[in-house]
Specification:
By secondary structure, this protein is α/β, with parallel strands linked by helices. 28% of the residues lie in helices and 21% in strands. The strands form six sheets. It has a nine-stranded mixed sheet, sandwiched between helices. Helix 4 packs parallel to helix 6 and helix 8 (269-277) packs antiparallel against helix 10 (293-313). The radius of gyration is 23 Å and the shape is globular.
């Protein structure tokens, strides 16, 4: 489609006349930014802006560079992994945890070999693990030049991207019990927690930044419940929740600390509703509750618009690089193999003994033979990740996994003197549609290679484009709908253009280092996108 001019012809003629007569002296815009803001839209599909009018994202696209072929670029495509990849430019195989389950092979947290849920790690534990790595977090670009803040509703997303580098970290607490530290009036409410909180935070129960998690808005029977105003804004304009809460907190911190140089903001509402009601499917077939994907997409877009306006009003727009992307996309499963009962989300994802989290005591019937063959734990979404006991019957595990509904590839982890790799031991791409099969055959080898390491699962099963073993809407796997994400840059030195070259999350960190004229002090797996930008 031919791009239309943003300015009428009369305006262009006027500018030309003023320039010729010396009445206009164009000010050369800066070519290198001084600070950066990265916004991560959790579970945001690349096709959402084309299916729904999102004014703020459209306006950014008109003044920056859009990568039309951006994708996650690694496995698994999940929040707790991607938020670790994004600021460090490394594949999961080279990071502290490589999956939504963590095998502590070195005994860093306790007895060697035990399994943990990294989504339950607090900031201190994440920092302990990340400090063992030689990585170059993008915050080091700004060392000594200003503060780095990380904000979002999901503690594991915020902590993973903040890691060892952030000066200010703000997320939400777990739901307070009636006998909690703030007494019975705090039951069902959450409040800001984190690192470097302003004096007086979290404040009295039910004060400005406290959120009520009790409203269900018709989601009482959903397999993955709403979480009240942790997810959605709610009716009280003086205490907005959801993504509006995140942006309010970010603005509060940026105003209190004008010396900031890097802000990473993650918005989680779209992800929550996407899991509950089938991601993009809810756009065409809205669910019966009061919470719909269309409204959450518009709300997320509105927060991006608020951020742009915030920077403009404070005179920071011309010196700030703004990046918009997602940690993963998502797909609505038409063939769903999870437990369909209220609040069953955790049991749909995880089975097995974990050291730091309770899981469902009973395994789903189709997976029971796997447990009998030596399965120790499994993580299920749009891929299956199998962690095996030392004496597991691998051939039997592969046979049983290959027969599960929706499985198109099974790969077993192998170790060589040069490292680990995943070897396909079963493949049946005939069950894929033509487009998905072309994507699968082109992308799967590279995606598997980003994952293979000692901590990764012993067996991985990839699923077709219709199947989820986790939630009605889910992610994690190699499907195109899960991998395709938005990625756009706007700010000083960024041209207005659309780029067809591929871009991955792992490429974001080296791109930021290049845009700020710095050389990363540690190796990265990603490559700079600056040649495509220029």
């Amino acid at each position: 489609m031919r791009a239309r001019s943003l300015y009428p012809a009369t305006f262009l003629l006027a500018v030309a006349w003023l320039s010729a007569t010396g009445c206009a002296r164009p000010v050369k815009p800066p070519t290198r930014p001084k600070r950066a803001v990265i916004v991560v839209l959790d579970m945001f599909r690349a096709d959402y802006p084309g299916r729904l009018r999102l004014p703020a994202l459209e306006a950014l696209a008109r003044r920056g560079t859009v990568f039309e072929n951006a994708h996650v670029g690694h496995l698994p495509a999940t929040t707790v992994v991607s938020h670790q990849v994004l600021p460090r430019g490394l594949f999961p195989r080279n990071l502290a945890w490589s999956d939504d389950l963590y095998r502590d092979r070195e005994g860093l947290l306790g007895e060697p070999g035990r399994l943990y849920d990294p989504g339950e790690f607090d900031l201190t534990r994440m920092r302990t693990l990340l400090s063992k790595l030689d990585t170059a977090h993008v915050a080091r670009i700004f060392a000594g030049r200003g503060r780095f803040l990380a904000v979002g509703q999901k503690d594991y997303a915020v902590n993973a991207m903040a890691g060892e580098a952030a000066d200010l970290v703000v997320t939400l607490s777990g739901t307070q019990k009636s006998d909690g530290p703030h007494g019975p009036d705090a039951a069902g409410w959450v409040h800001p927690v984190g690192l470097g909180l302003p004096t007086g935070w979290p404040g009295k129960p039910r004060s400005r930044f406290w959120l009520d998690t009790r409203p269900a808005y018709g989601t009482e029977d959903a397999v993955y419940r709403l979480g009240g105003h942790r997810t959605v804004a709610g009716p009280d304009p003086d205490r907005p929740g959801g993504d509006a809460w995140v942006m309010d907190v970010a603005f509060h911190l940026l105003e209190r600390h004008p010396d900031w140089s890097l802000a990473m903001i993650t918005l989680g509402a779209v992800d929550r509703v996407g899991h509950m009601y089938g991601a993009d499917r809810d756009l065409d077939h809205p669910n019966g509750s009061q919470v719909h994907m269309r409204d959450l997409l518009l709300a997320a877009d509105a927060q991006v618009g608020r951020l742009v306006d915030f920077l403009r009003r404070r005179g920071l727009q011309d010196e700030t690089l703004l990046v918009i992307t997602a940690d993963h996309a998502g797909m609505g499963a038409t063939r769903w193999h999870g437990m369909d009962r209220p609040g069953a989300s955790s049991g749909n994802w995880i089975w097995g003994r974990l050291e730091n989290a309770e899981t469902e005591a009973a395994i789903r019937a189709p997976l029971l033979p796997l447990a009998e063959a030596g399965l120790e734990a499994i993580y299920s979404d749009t891929a299956l990740r199998l962690y095996l006991k030392p004496d597991a019957d691998l051939s039997r595990i592969v046979e049983l996994t290959s027969a599960l509904p929706g499985v198109v590839l099974v790969a077993a982890k192998r170790e060589t003197p040069g490292g680990y790799f995943y070897e396909p031991v079963f493949s049946k791409p005939e069950g894929l549609g033509a487009r998905e099969r072309a994507w699968f055959e082109a992308m799967t080898p590279g995606l598997l290679a980003t994952w293979a390491c000692g901590r990764a699962p012993e067996v991985v099963a990839l699923l077709d484009e219709h199947t989820s073993w986790g939630q009605p809407g889910d992610h994690g796997g190699a499907q195109e709908a899960v991998q395709r994400i938005p990625m756009m840059f706007a700010g000083p030195g960024i041209p207005v253009r659309r780029v067809s070259a591929q871009a991955r999350l792992v490429d974001l960190a080296p791109t930021l280092w290049a845009l700020f004229g710095r050389t990363p002090p540690a190796r990265m797996d990603g490559v700079s996108l600056v040649p495509s930008l220029r």
